[in-house]
Write a structure and sequence with these properties.
Shape: elongated
Radius of gyration: 26 Å
Helix content: 40-55%
Strand content: 15-25%
Number of strands: 12
Order of helices and strands: EHHEEHHHEEHEEEEHEEE
């Protein structure tokens, strides 16, 4: 029997209407996302008010947009006077994330279709590696503003945005002179899923605190026009070329980003240069 009036729903009734399992509702209670309106002190039965249906449907809606429970909790806890503006910003960010994922999926579908066509013609699936061009270039030394961290693969996407944003903010605040494109330098000698020694850098003119000299010299260089997921293919091609041509890697490889990925309408518009500093064996 309900304990608080006709406007209360048992956890089962609430679960059925909102299409959320009772187990999930109990978990949401644990993390403070949505709590029962009333709990029978004797039986421990949980009851939700009719008014909470709207909140639960709102939570489900945000969850369907791929917001994490932590993000949803932060949104539902916003004060009324700031909730609309913060929700607007959160939805815009999520829309951009989903749009980026859609672009990646579209590119992947295009790749799969090309692979199917090539296989149908008897062309090996990995033959695209042969089309990756490598050239020897002489790079000039420059002064870079940098941040260096141990980064796991899962942190790369967010880290790239955060660390480059911090560097650009310092450049703007201190009125420094930008003289080149943003770069990522990979210092770890091997891949480690726990963390890799990664340096984010932007060339600037002024030798201020937080800058260092960046080497110039002979490099094997390749250019990728496509999503960052294809960079491993470029690294593989450069490694093969360096070995076959009698060179050896002498310093950390690095990437230079010629385009802003957020301004690229399709993945093919993203242009990245990859450099392997080398010398003859």
């Amino acid at each position: 029997m309900k304990t608080g009036g006709d406007d209360l729903l048992s956890i089962g009734e609430f679960s059925k209407i909102c299409e959320v399992s009772t187990k999930t509702l109990r978990y949401y209670d644990e993390i403070g996302l949505i709590k029962p309106d009333e709990i029978n002190p004797e039986s421990g039965y949980r009851y939700y008010s009719i008014g909470q249906l709207k909140k639960m449907i709102f939570i489900n809606r945000l969850k369907s947009y791929n917001f994490s429970l932590q993000e949803i909790k932060a949104i539902v806890e916003l004060e009324k006077d700031e909730s609309e503006e913060k929700l607007y910003s959160a939805l815009n960010r999520k829309r951009m994330e989903i749009q980026e994922k859609l672009s990646v999926f579209e590119y992947t579908l295009k790749q799969i279709s090309n692979d199917i066509l090539n296989l149908d013609k008897g062309i090996p699936i990995m033959s695209y590696l042969d089309s990756i061009e490598v050239q020897l270039v002489e790079t000039q030394p420059q002064n870079i503003l940098y941040i260096r961290h141990m980064m796991s693969r899962d942190e790369y996407a967010e880290g790239y945005g955060n660390y480059f944003s911090n560097l650009y903010e310092k450049i703007a605040t201190e009125k420094l002179t930008l003289i080149g494109k943003p770069m990522t330098i990979y210092h770890s000698p091997e891949y480690n899923p726990v963390g890799n020694d990664t340096e984010f850098a932007i060339p600037i003119e002024e030798p201020v605190k937080g800058t260092r000299d960046f080497h110039g010299g002979l490099c094997a260089k390749s250019v990728l026009k496509g999503p960052y997921s294809e960079l491993t293919s470029v690294f593989a091609k450069l490694s093969e070329w360096v070995e076959n041509e009698g060179y050896e890697l002498v310093k950390s490889p690095y990437e230079k980003y010629l385009t802003n990925p957020y301004q690229a309408s399709i993945p093919e518009d993203i242009v990245t240069e990859v450099y392997f500093p080398v010398k003859k064996k």
